[in-house]
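Model: You mentioned two targets. I'll fold them one after the other.
Researcher: Yes, keep them separate.
Model: Target one:
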Amino acid sequence: MPGLLDRLLGIFSRDIGIDLGTANTLVHVRDRGIVISEPSVVAIEARTKKVLAIGAEAKRMVGRTPANIIAVRPLRDGVISDFDVTEQMIKYFVDKVHDRVGLIARPRMLIGIPSGVTEVEKRAVRDAALNSGARWARLIEEPMAAAIGAGLPVSEPSGSLIVDIGGGTTEVAVISLGGIVVSRSIRIGGDEMDQDIVNFARREYNLFLGERTAEDIKIAIGSAYPGDWDQQRINLRGRDLLTGLPRSVEVGADQIREAIEPSVVQIVDTIRDTIEETPPELVADIMDQGIVLAGGGALLAGLDRRVAEATQMPVHVADDPLTCVARGTGIVLQEMDTMERVLVTDTYIRPPR
């Protein structure tokens, strides 16, 4: 789209940056900051496929719906698993933003994607954005957006190591001079930890837990390293697999830590493997400024100490780690002229209808 027309339309629209996450979707609007932070959940009518609710309202339905209503998560492991539902979810958030600001021109849209996705998966995200009403859509790798949102000097000739732990993926990247030098992406994140807790309850107590219950337990007393939180205890409430009746079992934080250990080990090993591949000059930079943790997984108690012990490097949790990717997309859109090179694709213009 010609630059002059694009700038003119920009007066009547708002640039939108989206962290399209497996667990949560965050929307950043130019000049307004993050205006939407809702679960990536859509409730649909099973027979007609009609969308009934999106976001927080849909998440409240998870595990509580009648047979004719299905609460689905259209993204799995950081990528689109249900294209049509994802498209409707993005359109819902875009319309909500534009209703809120009272503007009519369609927005420019920048969306964060995992660094390990295929070209087909990139195209799916791009097409979903365009079909939902974007004027044009561009993509940025999530670790790059997270690093920018966390305030790391990504454009300078020094190494920065960012670890973005989301619901479906963990992204580890070493960034220098506006580009990713070394990166690794594994499909392990908060969702896998929730499943670890479900498996633990089934294995140890013959107790069947729901996904939401497991997530609440992880948030309440989950940890990756021994600490004062080990004194905490919580009740696991679920269905007894032997009797079929409700049952409650009290467990300690140390047991939950042991339950999620397999996922934590894979995340820590991925960080170590990334460092081993990093050029020595950049490793020296990282030793000076430390490793930065972002994403919801960074809030896991003791994870910073666990990573520091494994890597022998200082580790910091970013300010408000949940919003780093969304804030990063907003900064890039604001400074597009100087930050063009951090993007991973060409501009995709909305086709005429």
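Model: Target two:
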Amino acid sequence: MYDFNYEVKDGVATITLNRPEVMNALTLEIYAQLRDLFETLRYDDEVKSVVITGAGERAFCSGGDVHKIIGVMLDRDMRAHVEFCRMTGALVRNMRLLGKPIIGALNGTTAGAGAVIAIACDLRIMADDAKFAFLFTRVGLTGADMGAAYLLPRLIGQGRALELLMLGDDVDARTAERIGLVNRIVPKAEVLPLAQEWATRLAKGPTFSIGMTKTLVNNEWTMDIGSAIESEAQAQALLMMGEDHRAFYEAFKAKQKPEFKGR
């Protein structure tokens, strides 16, 4: 069905890019399949959280396949180029619009489009020997690709974002953690288990409130402070009337652990 591995267990969907022989490089088909999958996941009640990782030990994702994308696209006209770039951007848009947490398990090199997919995740866990690189200017393209110029400054600030997007230099794991590019760095063998642990914890939590948190963080990027506070007031009032909040209160009174239902 997909040109990557996909499985769902205990409310966690795990996507594994599975072309380790080419450092999990993306093809036109994989881009389109990921774009459509993240749209479909909006309506899949079985899935509460998502993990995306790469097969093998070398890479999370090295970006677009040089031969199967660059080699192919250079023979196409301008309209086809625009359609392709809109498709890759739609993947990131669908990731950000998904009201469920996405965790990037960055098990190795995270470069080019792979780096943008990583920053489109909500949380990132990186192998301590891995590297990040926004390669676009190194191949004669703009560093502003797939939403990178929108997302990256919000993660690490405009100055650092411009440094990475303009120079295209490799960023080692410790630097990535220090500047806020990733949430955790751990030994390679611990990357996916920790990502699964976080995803399972989120899947068992108050999923509606977690999704609302992601939505508000996304929406408030373009709001003034007054609009943001009012938006949070309305959202919080709704959540205070939800079943999960009541479940917390009843469990608190009974000195028990609450069981959340995502409502």
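Researcher: Noted. Anything on target two?
Model: Strands lie at 5-9, 12-17, 49-54, 59-61, 102-106, 109-111, 123-127, 131-133, 171-172, 184-186.
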